[in-house]
Design the sequence.
């Protein structure tokens, strides 16, 4: 496939400067639209209700209220009662497993929640729940967070308050990769 | 026989915690992200979909589907079990790089990113490089050698991408498990080196 880069020399990136001419030179739809900060519309597929939002929800003390989460609506969230914001933040790779829910009557749960329980007999990530059960990512997050609060599932995720995985964990990843 | 020891009762998930980590795989459209993920994943890559609402319609070009108020963003991912309590997920970034809000979500807590480049279309990788640089995420550049051809030298690519000399640039064949694996190892080593130098 011939591309614009198929010249004698590869094209040269002008370093990080999103508002400079470099952005305009990049071809077409793959380039970042100039002047749009990267957080714009951030996380809005599961975003909080904004001033124009029509969802009713309670704000979780654990939810992140920062960095301009603005969004509206969304019909796919019917199953969550219109809530688009999970009761607490779940990483896309957070691991979920069904709890020992004992004698609880699970038939009162929404079909989606029953499906999550059935699927999470072994540890599964939010991403897998979303992909395999065909739930939009944001919906899966809301449901799993609710179920965790109800004690139906256990969730394990790294506390990202510290940013990146620490050295010990990276060591473990490295040795795991080398053994594969 | 050792059935007894390997048997794990269903509904009785091991009490030990399961830890998960992720690596982001980025690059231009058709550069081999899904091939890369698929070559090491223990599952056929899955696709998760996120919904983009009308709120970002001004960002997205919906002119071709004017009646549409939401659109979905698909992300492919794969999974690798690294040890009994550790799983690595590899997430391909959405093909359309205008979906930056998904990237913000993806890089949170990530080990780092692999930017796959096709030297015939090097410019396609610029947005990803810009993004990871600005986000301070450890990343490496993997030149995907289609048919084993690497028409430009690593230093050509390093210059053209204008990345710091500290950013490793490796050649890989996204179809080859071994090659993909060693690319991931390079990234993890780079992430560790960055942490140690920051101390």
Sequence:
């Amino acid at each position: 496939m011939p591309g614009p880069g198929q010249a004698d020399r590869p094209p040269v990136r002008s370093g990080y400067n999103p508002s400079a001419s470099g952005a305009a030179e990049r071809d077409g739809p793959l380039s970042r639209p100039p002047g749009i900060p990267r957080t714009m519309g951030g996380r809005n597929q599961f975003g909080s209700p904004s001033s124009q939002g029509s969802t009713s929800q309670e704000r979780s003390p654990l939810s992140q209220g920062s960095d301009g989460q603005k969004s509206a609506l969304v019909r796919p969230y019917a199953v969550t009662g219109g809530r688009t914001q999970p009761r607490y933040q779940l990483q896309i790779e957070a691991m979920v497993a069904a709890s020992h829910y004992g004698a609880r009557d699970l038939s009162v749960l929404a079909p989606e929640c029953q499906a999550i329980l059935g699927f999470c007999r072994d540890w599964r990530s939010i991403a897998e729940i979303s992909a395999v059960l065909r739930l939009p990512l944001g919906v899966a997050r809301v449901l799993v967070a609710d179920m965790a609060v109800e004690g139906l599932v256990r969730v394990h995720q790294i506390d990202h308050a510290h940013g990146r995985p620490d050295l010990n964990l990276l060591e473990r990843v490295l040795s795991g990769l080398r053994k594969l | 026989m050792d059935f007894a020891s390997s048997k794990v009762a269903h509904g009785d998930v091991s009490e030990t915690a399961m830890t998960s980590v992720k690596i982001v795989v980025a690059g231009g459209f058709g550069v081999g992200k899904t091939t890369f993920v698929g070559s090491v994943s223990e599952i056929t890559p899955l696709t998760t979909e996120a919904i983009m609402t009308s709120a970002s319609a001004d960002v997205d070009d919906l002119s071709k589907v004017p009646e549409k108020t939401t659109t979905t963003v698909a992300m492919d991912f794969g999974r690798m079990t690294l040890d009994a309590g550790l799983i690595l997920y590899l997430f391909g970034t959405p093909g359309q790089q205008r979906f930056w809000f998904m990237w913000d979500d993806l890089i949170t807590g990530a080990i780092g990113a692999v930017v796959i480049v096709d030297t015939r279309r090097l410019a396609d990788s610029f947005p990803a490089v810009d993004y990871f640089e600005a986000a301070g995420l450890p990343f490496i550049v993997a030149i995907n050698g289609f048919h084993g051809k690497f028409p430009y030298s690593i230093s050509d690519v390093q210059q053209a991408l204008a990345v710091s000399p500290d950013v490793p640039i490796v050649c890989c064949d996204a179809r080859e498990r071994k090659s993909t694996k060693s690319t991931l190892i390079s990234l993890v080593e780079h992430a560790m080196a960055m942490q140690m130098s920051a101390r």
Q: What stands out?
A: Chain A touches chain B through 83 residues (CB under 8 Å). The first strand of chain A starts at residue 95 and ends at 98.
